[in-house]
Amino acid sequence: MSWIWSTVKTVHLLVLLLVCGIGFYNLNVTSEKSPPPEDKKGDNFGALTVVQDSEQQEQDDGVVIVESEDEIKIENPDPFIPTNEWQVVKPGQAIPRGLHVRLNIQTGQKEARLMQKEENGPADNAQVQDSKPTTDSSPGLVDKLDLDEVKRAVKSMKSEEFKSVDMETLRKENQFRSYEELKADMEKINADIQTDAELISNLVQQFQALVEAKEDVTPILEQLEYYLHQIDNAMLFCDLGAMPTLLRCLNSSREKVRAEAALALGSALQSNPKVQIAAIENGAMHEVLRLVAFDQSMTVRKRAMYALSTMVRHFPFAQKHFLKLGGLSVLGKLFENKLTEKLQVRAVTLLADLIKEKELHSVHSDAADSAQEERLRQYGEINLQEAMVESGWCSLISSLLVIPEHDSREKVLVAMDTVLPACEMFFQSSVPMLRNLQEEYKELVREEQEESRDGEVEGDGFYQSLVGRVERLIDMLNIKEEL
């Protein structure tokens, strides 16, 4: 019986060894596939660990032993067959290289199709991008192909496309052209480009010809007035000898011509000493004073006052000539007619500005400046305030306090403050009127303050400033009276 027992034990041992051998055999899996490239790890593959068997290291059959930590799983083994139409790429589905791939924003799905020869651009609801190869290709193949394509494209280019461009060619092909070239081009299309100097010259020729022919020069005067605001144009106008012709128009029988001529003269005289001298030498002062005092048209008189103002400002020689011709008496005639109140205020404002102008030049003079020294000498020959007192202007100025317009009153108050040292005795009779104005403007100030408290727009302080001017005059006149 012992031999039977020994036989059973032996069979059991062989079975155990067989089971162990099968178990070890199942642990070793041979594979004839190459490992996936580095850029495809994790795409349609499980997590793999590649281990090369030391015993098989020298074999030439390329078989490696792979140990799998996870199950190898391909979600969509179905091949993607591209067409010219967009098709949905299923998750995990491999696509061939060279396709046009986009992400549909509305559906969130990836779509692909064959590359088109002429792309019309991406759809409104899709974002398009070029596909990358998803086949098992060696790294760097795409870059190599792109480089070959670039080389072929460069070789196919024509050499004349890289011709050198010099500055002369660039100048001709672009807009960098001279004035003469532009003028020539404009002449070809019946257009004419002129500088201001050329325009002034042409206008002066037409202007003089029309005056000699006694035709209507109103349109020419309107054009000249536009250009004579510029100092250089006005100087050229005088150099061309057009000042006498312009002054002739001040005597025209046509109201419109006189008005436009006075306006053009005032524009040319403004802050332009050369034109001021030319105007005085050609007798412009006499003509302008005549229009201010006697012309039947209020428009002509206003524009003549404008020309007179620009003629005498910052020009002591013209101011002296103004007094010599009896300009104060001429302007005084404006107070004979109630219809000329606005002209009266302008005349008072002009005289007050001339007094301030002399004071400013005296205070801010530069002894080292020879021109300033000569200007001060000429101002010293003018005593405008004394002439105003002798001509009765102190009473004329204070008489304007009855004007109902607040802006005009302000100008009158400023003028009274300016000439106060010379006219203080004549202004004493105006104190009651000044006190009435003081009460009137204080009441207007209170109304402004109440409106601001009620939520209305707050005033700009205009009435308060008038209160200050009136009180200053009253205080100064009371001090003079006590002295």
Question: Could you explain the architecture of this structure?
Answer:
- By secondary structure, the chain is an alpha+beta fold.
- 58% of the residues lie in helices and 6% in strands.
- The chain contains 21 helices and seven strands.
- The chain has helices spanning 2-27, 141-156, 167-173, 179-188, 196-212, 218-227, 231-239, 243-249, 255-269, 273-281, 284-294, 298-312, 316-324, 327-332, 341-363, 370-380, 384-390, 393-398, 406-427, 431-453, 462-482, and strands spanning 30-31, 48-51, 64-68, 87-88, 99-104, 110-114, 126-130.
- A four-stranded antiparallel sheet has the order 4-6-5-7, with no helix packed on it. A three-stranded antiparallel sheet has the order 1-3-2, with no helix packed on it.
- α6 (218-227) runs parallel beside α9, α12 packs parallel to α15 (341-363) and α20 packs antiparallel against α21 (462-482).
- It is elongated and about 170 Å long.
- It starts with a helix and ends with a helix.
What class would the helix/strand composition place it in?
Answer: alpha+beta
Strand-residue proportion: 5-15%
Low-pLDDT ranges: 29-74, 120-145, 158-162
Q: Which percent bin holds the helix content?
A: 55-70%
Chain-wise SSE layout:
Elements (H helix, E strand, L loop, with lengths): L1 H26 L2 E2 L16 E4 L12 E5 L18 E2 L10 E6 L5 E5 L11 E5 L10 H16 L10 H7 L5 H10 L7 H17 L5 H10 L3 H9 L3 H7 L5 H15 L3 H9 L2 H11 L3 H15 L3 H9 L2 H6 L8 H23 L6 H11 L3 H7 L2 H6 L7 H22 L3 H23 L8 H21 L1
Antiparallel strand pairs: 1-3, 2-3, 4-6, 5-6, 5-7
Helix pairs in contact: 5-6, 6-9, 9-12, 11-12, 12-15, 15-19, 19-21, 20-21
